[in-house]
From TrEMBL:
Biological classification of the source: Bacteria, Pseudomonadati, Pseudomonadota, Gammaproteobacteria, Oceanospirillales
InterPro entries listed in its UniProt record: DUF5062, DUF5062_sf, Tscrpt_reg_LuxR_C
One Pfam family here: DUF5062
Protein name according to UniProt: DUF5062 domain-containing protein
Ranges of residues in domain HTH luxR-type: 1-20
GO biological process: regulation of DNA-templated transcription
Length: 88
């Protein structure tokens, strides 16, 4: 599976984690603390978005950190308005 290059992927991942945390709080499915690792947040938000059918799950054996980050970056890029600075 060839990954599509995403502009500003690291920044989009950070934004996806921020937005995903708000989403999880609104859904009342979890709250993060300052001591939670970015890796734990990434896994939780990825699984929540898959569970809620907001993103397609990765193929079996592909569920690693780089692929999850890429999925979240793609998801976030679709949520932002076309003229958002992270998409330029």
């Amino acid at each position: 599976m060839a990954k599509t290059k995403v502009k500003n992927e690291p920044q989009l991942v950070l934004e996806a984690l921020r937005v995903g945390e708000i989403y999880a709080n609104k859904r009342k499915v979890g709250e993060f603390s300052a001591t939670d690792s970015a890796k734990d947040k990434l896994r939780f938000i990825y699984r929540l978005l898959v569970h809620d059918k907001l993103i397609q799950p990765l193929a079996k054996g592909q569920e690693d950190e780089p692929n999850m980050k890429h999925k979240l970056a793609l998801w976030m890029s679709r949520q932002l308005p076309e003229d958002h600075p992270l998409l330029k």
